[in-house]
Design goal:
This protein is of the alpha/beta class. It has two domains: about 60 residues, Helicase, Ruva Protein, domain 3 (Orthogonal Bundle); about 190 residues, 3-Layer(aba) Sandwich (Rossmann fold). About 40% of the residues lie in helices and about 20% in strands. It has eleven helices and nine strands. Strands 5-4-3-6-7-9-8 form a seven-stranded mixed sheet, sandwiched between helices. Strands 1-2 form a two-stranded antiparallel sheet. The protein is elongated, with a radius of gyration of 21 Å. The chain binds S-adenosylmethionine. The site of S-adenosylmethionine has 22 residues, from helix 7, strand 4 and helix 9.
Length: about 280
């Protein structure tokens, strides 16, 4: 086992992977179904040729650029272990800012919140995990993403109402919400980041929006206002540099108390506003 671990680390290191040692432990541990402690404790344990071949295939996929989260089939978000696959976006740490802001606006006690474009279910599940009394709703246009989200909810023992459909269409006839939150696609089609890192392997529909990245933000801002109870909050994640455009979209939609909030890098990544009374 120790030899295979060293071989994997060297291969990842040669490919320029930053955390080669950590990733080697994760990939070998995943394939051999053991933890980091197990790899150390049972370092001398032999591996079968079949196991070694499977580990080498995983390492080769990583060297070819496949995201580590897809290879492991999981990613942690808001301290929740989430299953992910190539049909959904890999939840990002930046999105925890959106969850933090949303929790600050949720009324105490029972409330209704909607997560639009839920992907793996990350935001809806984080909110529900913090507020057990919350009636959490979530929608996505992709059936594959919703299946992952529902499986995550089931494993975590959290109840969320899942809907398939385009933005607000999926919940048009439901009672008004106290809060609507979304991390929609907001990358412009010609953004060079799309050809780098994990983004190369994630679903384009989860990343790219027309109109320089603003089309989905605009659609959600326009449709959400009438689905919020008076005084309810709309919170949107967006790209660094889109803050002023999204503030304008929320004001045009009739929101008040509109403001943007920066992530730890000091970049505006979340804009929020309140439905008029
Ligand atoms: C940036 S991903 C966010 C995923 C997840 N909320 C997260 O933060 O990890 C955007 C999500 O919006 C979904 N989506 C794209 N267009 C949509 C539409 N017209 N209606 C509903 N969902 C859509 C995608 O399938 C994807 O899951």
């Amino acid at each position: 086992m120790a030899g295979l671990l060293a071989e994997s680390r060297d291969r990842l290191q040669r490919a320029g992977i930053d955390q080669a040692g950590l990733e080697a432990r994760l990939l070998v541990g995943h394939q051999l179904e053991t933890t980091g402690a197990g790899l150390i404790a049972f370092g001398e344990r032999p591996v079968t040729p079949r196991q070694a071949e499977a580990v080498r295939a995983l390492v080769a996929a990583r060297v070819a650029g496949q995201p580590i989260a897809y290879l492991l089939g999981r990613r942690e978000f808001w301290s929740l272990p989430l299953q992910v696959d190539a049909g959904c976006l890999i939840p990002r740490p930046e999105t925890e800012l959106l969850v933090e802001r949303a929790l600050g606006h949720l009324p105490a006690g029972p409330a209704r919140a909607l997560d639009l474009g839920t992907g793996s279910g990350a935001i809806a599940l984080a909110l529900k995990s913090e507020r057990p009394q919350l009636q959490a709703w979530a929608s996505d246009v992709e059936a594959g993403a919703l299946a992952v989200a529902a499986a995550n909810a089931c494993r975590l023992g959290l109840t969320v109402h899942w809907f398939r459909g385009r933005w607000l269409e999926a919940v048009a006839s439901r009672p008004l919400f106290d809060l609507i939150v979304s991390n929609p696609p907001y990358v412009a089609a010609d953004d060079p980041h799309l050809t780098t890192g994990d983004l190369r392997f994630e679903p384009r529909r989860a990343l790219v929006a027309a109109d320089g990245g603003l089309a989905d933000l605009r659609a959600i801002a326009a449709a959400s206002h009438s689905r919020l109870r008076p005084g309810g909050w709309l919170l949107l994640e967006h790209g660094a540099g889109q803050g002023s455009a999204v503030r304008a979209l929320l004001r045009e939609a009739g929101c008040r108390e509109v403001s943007s909030h920066a992530d730890l890098a000091g970049l505006e990544r979340v804009t929020e506003g309140r439905a008029g009374a």
